[in-house]
Amino acid sequence: MTSLRYKSFSEDTAPIMEQMAKSISALKETAPTDEATRRMFGLQMDSFGQLFKRYIATRNQKIRWDHIRRPSPDILIDFDDIRGDCLEGCCQALLNKLVIVKLNGGLGTTMGCVGPKSVIEVRDELTFLDLTVKQIETLQDMYQCQVPLILMNSFNTHDDTLKAINKYKNSSVRVLTFNQSRHPRILKGSNVPMPTCYDDPKDYWTPPGHGDFYRSFERSGLLKEMLDEGREFCFVSNVDNLGATVDIDILYNMEQMKREFIMEVTPKTMADVKGGTLIEYEGKVKLLELAQVPPENIEDFKSIKMFKIFNTNNIWVNLTAVHRVLEANTLEMDIMCNQKVRDVKWTGRCVEGRNVLCRRPPMEHPSFNWKRQLVLRSRASRQLGCVVRGVTAPENQFGAHP
């Protein structure tokens, strides 16, 4: 049975929750008979149910634009303030505690390509994924360390990615994969799932966004595996951001200051107007994304005068802290609703589907229990726009010291 408790809602929302509970229960019954698949699908559907429950409870809550303030400069630390702290002799030991995770759930459709974004050729017939592996090979050779590369795929990119990584069998880099969750699209108006069966076509489903990383990483078994290996830190970034290389100074600061979460930001430019930014809202520092902005305030959001900080989507997180937060079940995400029109060719219908997307949490979400957090104002080269025309020379990568 699903864990949705629809009776706690108001009279107008209780029927919606009851219908969703029945739909989820019915969906779970259509899963394949093998135990592992049924269990994973059941967990994903329960997570979706909880996400939908929170969406219904908060759907009428709008951001009050007049309550938004630019964050105080004192919440930021400049990269130059931590640069050079790490001593050469400790680099190998630190890197052997690190895991690199690349978010690999997106397709290359916005770039006019077919298939995963990671297999798009960037230069010299090398893809984003090829260049990422080469960067880690250079890192490992430089410091005689072993740093695994883990790809978080979606159901859209999984099969093609498994084919693509075959070429790295002889690489010194250990490449691992896991899948983020698969959640149903929701039909606008009726608030019921588009799929009625586990095997319904891909367009009936949606990946729930980057915030799903923590729980999916745990469910895959890789969180436990990395902790058992003595890995303590995780660096997460977009697979198409070739500027998001390992910086030893950031890693050293994380260990020495016992930080559990570091978020990298850069100065906002005209190329970044649609990206997330930091705000101060009702006394808390939060991450504001375009999907949360009222239509009448879109142009204000895009202003580089009003909002001067751009979220690079590079984060550093302590794996023990991730385990603690998941065990305590205190992980909550801001919910963003992304509406799309889908032409469902296999049924001859044209429906409007609503995605309920779970995204990465703001840095200081009041119920998100990271301790000793940091917002780091990094170099502009740590976001894609500054490096897409060429890969940084190996001797200048990784915060290396002469």
Task: State the main characteristics.
alpha/beta; 402 residues; 26% helix; disordered N terminus; globular; 18 strands; disordered C terminus; three-stranded antiparallel β-sheet; 10 helices
Task: Please give a structural write-up.
This protein is α/β, with parallel strands linked by helices and 402 residues long. It is built from 10 helices and 18 strands. The chain has helices spanning 14-29, 35-58, 91-95, 128-143, 158-164, 213-219, 222-228, 248-256, 298-302, 319-328, and strands spanning 68-69, 76-78, 98-104, 121-123, 126-127, 149-153, 175-179, 183-184, 186-187, 205-206, 233-238, 261-267, 277-281, 284-288, 309-318, 335-344, 349-358, 373-377. Helix 1 (14-29) runs antiparallel to helix 2 (35-58). The longest helix has 24 residues, at 35-58. It starts with 13 loop residues before the first helix and ends in a 25-residue tail after the last strand. The model is unreliable at 1-9, 343-351, 357-367 and 385-402 (pLDDT under 50).
